[in-house]
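Backbone-to-sequence.
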């Protein structure tokens, strides 16, 4: 197990600079509604019937232009729902050489106000969401252009479900941005993937106590993880948030890309 808990603003090399440039470009796109919408429109909407219940679910799909086998990454939206911002991140990941699938756990509902977002999040049926994740993971891994290796990533609400994806599906790398990680060692024993976590020192919800407990449970389950702390607040990686911290967001995204390059 590895831990990196201190906030850092470190020097980076050529490879890291290249990744950082991608982060800046993504931040520019997400910070401009027209660019976000254009990037979102480059994804393709697809529909899947879940394996057990046969319920129809939708997702936004983006893939690299070349035909070589690529790893796949499942994106799980924030509490707002599958909006253009999440689709734009999928488009960006496709440009980095990943088959990116942004799945919808809200069945088409997208919130623009916190009260609606909270209501949608609280209405989630855990069994239905789990079946949705498993079905999409199997679909993505079976695509002709996929090499069969999968990652999962997202922020906040989606961060917690990114961890769940690693527990219930054949995921090879899990990235969590300040998501709820309250899981027991018994649950975490089902993980078959290393976990990379990004957390904020001023986050009043996903706080030090929660992450310390999570690390203890991961140790008890004998699982591999890396945690990074940033002198920032919850939502620091979201360019549309008032709490956005560009420098920390860039560093976190750089680390995310490096993690996926290593494990996928």
């Amino acid at each position: 197990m590895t831990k990196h808990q201190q906030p850092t603003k470190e020097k980076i090399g050529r490879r890291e600079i290249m990744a950082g440039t991608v982060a800046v470009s993504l931040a520019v796109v997400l910070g401009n509604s027209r660019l976000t919408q254009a990037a979102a429109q480059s994804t393709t909407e697809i529909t899947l019937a879940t394996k057990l219940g046969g319920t129809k679910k939708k997702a936004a799909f983006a893939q690299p232009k070349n035909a070589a086998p690529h790893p796949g990454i499942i994106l799980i939206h924030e509490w707002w729902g599958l909006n253009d911002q999440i689709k734009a991140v999928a488009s960006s990941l496709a440009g980095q050489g990943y088959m990116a699938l942004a799945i919808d756990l809200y069945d088409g509902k997208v919130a623009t106000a916190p009260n609606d977002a909270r209501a949608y999040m609280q209405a989630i049926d855990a069994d239905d969401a789990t079946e949705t994740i498993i079905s999409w993971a199997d679909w993505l891994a079976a695509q002709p252009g996929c090499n069969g290796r999968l990652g999962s990533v997202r922020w906040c609400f989606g961060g917690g479900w990114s961890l769940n994806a690693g527990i219930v599906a054949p995921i090879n790398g899990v990235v969590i941005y300040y998501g709820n990680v309250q899981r027991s060692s018994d649950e975490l024993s089902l993980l078959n993937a290393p976990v990379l976590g990004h957390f904020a020192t001023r986050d009043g919800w996903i706080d030090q106590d929660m992450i310390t407990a999570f690390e203890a449970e991961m140790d008890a389950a004998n699982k591999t993880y890396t945690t990074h702390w940033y002198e920032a607040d919850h939502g620091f990686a979201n360019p549309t948030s008032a709490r956005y911290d560009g420098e920390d967001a860039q560093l976190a995204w750089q680390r995310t890309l490096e993690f996926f390059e290593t494990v996928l």
